[in-house]
Specification:
Elements (H helix, E strand, L loop, with lengths): L3 E4 L5 E2 L22 E4 L1 H4 L25 H6 L1 H6 L4 E4 L3 E3 L10 E7 L10 H10 L3 E6 L3 E2 L28 E3 L2 E3 L19 H7 L9 E2 L6 E2 L7 H4 L25 H6 L7 E2 L5 H17 L3 E4 L7 H14 L4 E4 L23 H5 L17 E3 L1 H13 L11
Parallel strand pairs: 3-4, 4-7, 7-14, 14-15, 15-16
Antiparallel strand pairs: 1-2, 1-16, 5-6, 8-13, 9-10, 11-12
Helix pairs in contact: 8-9
GO molecular function: metal ion binding
Cofactor: Ca(2+)
Keywords: Metal-binding, Signal
């Protein structure tokens, strides 16, 4: 059973309740407090179509393709999930991903396209939703708003780098990569020209190499440095790294990458890139909002019953709520909840022994108060959160034999 909480006008913890409309297939979204939710990584769940399996280049392991499961396999197992007693299925982001290790779905490249490695003829995402509804199961879609993949957004913005097929490790030579299907070089083996970035927003020189030279042997001059590749040991950052200062500010924040104490700083959390394959979107820009909201509405129109938001604290609350309220206006009564892994509740500013600021804590996102010291002000935000605070309290009691600073949860 999923648990979500909000802080009511009296400052007490409570679970939120919403009214919901009937979905596309006649299944009422219902009160999600009554739902028993099965969470799964679609690409790792059940392989219904071996023809769409795909090996990620990072952490390659022979005989274990990172992409195996698909919607055809998930449809085949709906009775199994229902027989276990579950009433809803929460799937990882189905949008097209792109990175060296992207089977999980959290490295979005094209928010409008379902990843083809998950779909089969007659068994795509829409068909999965319809099949789930036909069995009385609701569908929750995981959504990432905070970041895109390291390849930008197809057709919108490109991130500067050299084609991976021209990368040659130090001490090696082109054509000697021997890594499962990656024979010769690390280019996308499923592409005729081993192109790992088909973004039409890329410059002409990049697109030309994406459409030719699958062996990666024709000399290419790096327009940034003037060096010629392939060249053994040439700067790996030009193939795999990100220069944050060269990103398009219309789409991305330019504040660098997170480190050390950044994980407790609201400004750093919400403006810096979490990792080289999680590039922080400028979610306050209207063009970014239009792009992301348009994509989410598309999936709501397919029949998605609820939304779970990833990396909640990495977006400023009021900014995030503009997204949530847009979706709820499009589909009245839509249940939206999010992941906010911050231990403790706390009012005011920084607390002794617990240095997470109030404005990144779970309760803050469930309320509209402008005062971090007063959870009694303002109203419900329309957004729920996974109750990590209560989970942490139970965990600490079990592992340490005592209650921690969250003892007020038991008042």
């Amino acid at each position: 059973m999923i648990r979500t909480f909000a802080i009511d006008a009296s400052g007490n913890q409570r679970e939120q309740r919403f009214e919901y409309r009937i979905g596309e297939q006649g299944v009422a979204s219902g009160d999600f407090r009554a739902e028993s939710i099965y969470f799964l990584l679609t690409a790792r769940f059940y392989d219904g179509d071996a023809s769409n399996n795909y090996y990620n280049r990072d952490r390659y392991k022979a005989g274990d393709p990172q992409w195996r499961g698909d919607f055809k396999g998930l449809i085949a197992k709906l009775d199994y999930i229902k027989d276990l007693g579950f009433t809803a299925i929460w799937v990882t982001p189905p949008v097209e991903n792109r990175s060296g290790l992207d089977y999980h779905g959290y490295h979005a490249y094209d928010f409008y396209r379902v990843d083809p490695r998950l779909e089969s003829p007659g068994a795509g995402y829409r068909e999965f939703i319809q099949a789930a509804h036909a069995k009385g199961l609701k569908v929750i879609q995981d959504v990432v708003l905070n970041h895109s993949s390291q390849y930008g957004l197809r057709g919108k913005t490109w991130i500067d780098r050299l084609p991976v097929k021209y990368y040659v490790p130090a001490g090696s030579s082109q054509g000697l990569i021997n890594n499962g299907p990656y024979q010769g070089n690390l280019g996308d083996y499923a592409s005729a020209n081993r192109c790992d970035d088909d973004n039409p927003a890329a410059p002409d020189w990049y697109k030309a190499r994406c459409q030719s030279d699958p062996a990666g042997t024709q000399p290419l001059v790096d327009p940034k440095t003037g060096a010629t590749v392939p060249s053994a040991g040439y700067n790996p950052n030009r193939f795999f790294g990100i220069d944050a200062q060269t990103l398009d500010p219309a789409w991305y924040h330019l504040d660098g990458f997170m480190s050390g104490g950044d994980w407790e700083s609201p400004l750093a959390l919400q403006r810096k890139h979490m990792a080289g394959d999680c590039i922080d979107l400028a979610t306050g820009n209207q063009n970014v909002k239009d792009y992301l909201n348009g994509a989410i509405r598309q999936y709501l129109d397919m029949g998605v019953d609820a939304i779970r938001i990833d990396t909640l604290k990495h977006i400023e609350r009021d900014e995030l709520l503009t997204y949530v309220h847009d979706w709820q206006a499009h589909k009245p009564g839509l249940f939206v909840f999010g992941e906010n892994l911050v231990k403790g509740t706390g009012w005011g500013s920084e607390l002794a022994n617990d240095n997470a600021s109030v404005v990144i804590r779970p309760w803050w996102y469930t309320r509209t108060t402008p005062n971090p010291a007063n959870p009694r002000a303002g109203g419900d935000s329309g957004l729920s959160v996974l109750d990590f605070s209560l989970f942490s309290t139970f965990r600490d009691n079990v592992t340490r034999g005592q209650c921690c600073s969250d003892k007020h949860f038991f008042d």
